[in-house]
């Protein structure tokens, strides 16, 4: 990626940074994910005096090699060991904030957020269990959006609504989308072009959603919203995106403020806290939301290049108690290119499970 030039700090920003007397140590989990790396990069590009501490259960996670300090974490499935590891790490390093870069870890942090904040003093940027359940269950997501007055694709469940299948096909037509009700990203999502394909993809399966296909692929958007503890939107950005195998490879920022504002209203109805990522396509020039992820996005690093630093906004609002007003993203194009990195073996061998150094 070609990085935008860093803006010059105005006098007020310089004063704020100078008033922060000590380093802000911040923990990023799931350092191997695309959005974990985006969080680390955003924190390191921040004008704030941030020190990033990254963890992952896999020693070959790229984010571990970019952070200031890195540790190998136990598996989150071993909740007791994982909890004590995180608690000790936060206390030993005086961590001020925790950013979650692993989808699998979201339920753990959501359940244990209050306990971790009390015992460590670190802010945990994670949505409530109710919001995570609602967003993880794509049928509940559609129901919430529809009940709140937002436009959604025509949808039915399978096999629960099998009796409605014929009338649904007649009214909606092909192609259709078949996807897991409890899926992640694009995993298991299938575009079916006729009835035979549909029947092949739903046979003997449960917990599916069959959905209207929103045809205009050039009008797909990913929208990032950050909300503070008081329910105020502190960051918002809408990007028209282009996908390869479910991951954004290109993003355009233009005059999409109305889409960002629309999604900010959606996030507010959820009672979200921290980061929310909303995916939609335009139909008759109106946003139609088909997925909400209750976390940071794989395009977090792309957003940084447009001047929107979501992790920094959360630290300013929640850790430093500053008033944060959403900024306007720069217009332009960001292309994502995958790169190879070389590191000496000493870097790999220095990774440790101990948090005492």
TrEMBL record:
InterPro entries: ATP-dep_AA_Ligase, ATP-grasp, ATP-grasp_PylC-type, ATP_grasp_subdomain_1, PylC_N. Its EC number is 6.3.2.4. The gene is ddl_1. The lineage of its organism: Bacteria, Bacillati, Bacillota, Clostridia, Eubacteriales. Residues 142-319 form the ATP-grasp domain. Keywords: ATP-binding, Ligase, Nucleotide-binding. It comes from the Bacteria. NCBIfam families: PRK12767.1-1 (NF009402). It comes from Clostridium chromiireducens. SUPFAM superfamilies: Glutathione synthetase ATP-binding domain-like. It holds the Pfam family PylC-like_N. Transmembrane segments: none annotated. This is D-alanine--D-alanine ligase. One of its GO terms (molecular function) is D-alanine-D-alanine ligase activity.
